[in-house]
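Run log, item B.
One chain of 286 residues. Sequence copied directly from the ordering sheet:
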Amino acid sequence: MIAKKIPYYTSYLKSEKRYSFHTIISYENDLNQFCLFNEHQSFTRKNVRNWVVHLMKSECSPKTIHRKLSALRSFANFGITQGYFKVNPVNGLALPKIPKRLPVFCGEEDLITLLDHFECSDEKDIRNRLILELLYCTGIRRNELINIRVADLDLVSNEILIRGKGNKQRKIPLLPEIKKTIQNYLNIRSDSVQKSLYLFEIDGKPLYPKLVYRIVNEYLQNIGTLTKKSPHTLRHTFATHLLNRGADLNSIKELLGHASLASTQVYTHNSIEKLKSIYKLAHPRA
């Protein structure tokens, strides 16, 4: 039975692969969904293909289907090493194509105006400003922001240690302006969090993801042209602004913590679109 093997797999993801809690839950949910669909619990190519067809008929997006099959493929590979299965039924399976969508990002003037006119009247406002600045000035992910510890800040060398996916660590430079905001926030934090382990805490626990999303979404509402207003929008903005100002792709890759250059190359499309618009405006024959 497939379902009986799932706890062993999730334990492997946690202890060996060091996947984040949210990734493990996502993979576990995907596997349980497959088990519910696959009543006989037989892990065959035919059953996997039938599940894909079912997902497509349920109007599941191609991106979501790819993610679910990625969970299934990873589980099958684990099962082969453990002797549960002989072959991986997911390999070589035809999947729906994912339409290319350019990352949504803020314009430079819009974001600079937002930060320059940010009102900080109390500790909460300063915290929120720091959250926005860190996401935009470092390009870190929401979960990486949440897990920043005070000890990760090196305000002498102007660096911050970030723990990324798979617990991979990288150091990111801190700009003078954001260093000031960090120092200001550390100085005014209430007594309840003054000795806390994490940079951002509520009741002794790190900020929860939905709160970070709400904070960012609230402030990005001031930029009406955005179709998405999430923490990841600021990550896209960080990468796009760096590329537009001449940063090389490999450096952006290292700052973002991408495992491969292919993940970073998506930002070149935004840069090309900008070049096209400039070309059309500037060229006499356009």
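Observations after the first pass:
- The chain has a mean pLDDT of 88.
- The radius of gyration is 22 Å.
Flagged for discussion on Thursday.
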